[in-house]
Amino acid sequence: MVQYDVLVVGGGTSGMMAAISAAENGAKKIALVEKNKILGRKLLVTGGGRCNVTNNRDKEEIIAHIPGNGRFLYSAFYQYDNYDIMNFFRSHGIALKEEDHGRMFPTTDKSRTIVNALSAILEKNNVALYTDAPVENILIEDNAAVGVLLKNGQELHADRVILSTGGRAMPRTGSTGDGYKWAKKAGHTLSPLYPTEVPIESNEEFIQNRTLQGLSLRDVRLSVLNKKGKEVIAHQMDMIFTHFGISGPAVLRCSMFVHTTMKKDNTDTVTMRLDAVPDQNKQELEQSIRSSMKSDGEKSIKNALKQLVPERYLLFGLNKNQLSEDMPLKQLTQNQIQALVHYLKDFQFQANGTLPIEKAFVTGGGVNTKEVNPKTMESKKTNHLYFTGEILDYNGYTGGYNITGAFITGRIAGMHAAESLLNKA
Ligand SMILES: Cc1cc2nc3c(=O)[nH]c(=O)nc-3n(C[C@H](O)[C@H](O)[C@H](O)COP(=O)(O)OP(=O)(O)OC[C@H]3O[C@@H](n4cnc5c(N)ncnc54)[C@H](O)[C@@H]3O)c2cc1C
Question: I need a surface site. Which of 103, 143, 322, 349 has the fewest CB within 10 A?
């Protein structure tokens, strides 16, 4: 029988870090069990294949960018934070660089650099690697995790078991949600799973007719409204219209709130609001149209106003308001000006949900964080069992926040699993 001190299930972002952390904190015999032939398949595809390894913002800001239960991570962050992640890689010879919005990448611009570095550190620490080794079940005896059963029938036993099997987003990377049923078996409840950081779908006619398909809008303000018309969230970033709805950074960030708002309001659609000219308020915009009417009144509406928004978006609005694009700007009536301002600042349409979880970057929901000790990541339901990463019910925006959460929870679980063994000895 093979007996380990610490056994980690899942050789992804958080699992690799958990195994390294267990070794660096004194555990002697560690195993990392991964169902793929290689480690870190999901990490390899992050950041467009460049690995957005963490973010260079302070704790509070990082947690604010983890809108799904980020507060659960406070205690972990006070033990190990994003600066520790950067120091960890730099101390292992990996140079990092900062890009827009604090995003950190290896200077090689290759995820492979990060996965290779983690693999080398695992090897240096003599972590036993089981790859191409899907776990079938976890073994629990007398209310304590004692190991795993592999699909090939082999049992691996351990004093501490860490579940790092990820969520259900992009299952081709190996994260097919296997860990959830073991969490349930260990007595945990799950918050319902839903896709986040995912494009939004809409059945609106202009989407179905592909009127705006392919049109990108830069630095616009996109909001999700609840059924009372109150803004639930807004993000000012880029977006694009697609054949099924909308996508792009502002959309991905709003996607979680499409789900939470529909659930809270008990509806199957949600209102989105698009402000295409966010740097001017309605009065300022009206004023600037009026000034153009004086200076450029002979010009057609299309030519006079196309500096405000892309021409296609403007034409769509003119059409909606039955305005001819060739009409001279000076002929606009007060009502027509107000209708245009309304369209540019407050265009509302219905969303019908998002693409499915398989197409999402991140999984919302998961193992109920109230049932996990935030200081150690240890289960409150089953002894000697720990959780890390996306299997837990927290989720962040893309931009390095999920990877940071995965590395940090992995670090903390590995550390406390090892320390609890040393304390026992
Ligand atoms: C395309 C894409 C881009 C992304 N970009 C970013 C980004 O830029 N910034 C950011 O912060 N986040 C990003 N993310 C999210 C981020 O990658 C994840 O949140 C993070 O990797 C989760 O880490 P994890 O350890 O929880 O799970 P994973 O990294 O998914 O690891 C789980 C591992 O467990 C293994 N496993 C599952 N079941 C079993 C089993 N039965 N037996 C053995 N092994 C098993 C899987 O094969 C997998 O290797 C992106 C995600 C995707 C899909």
Answer: 322
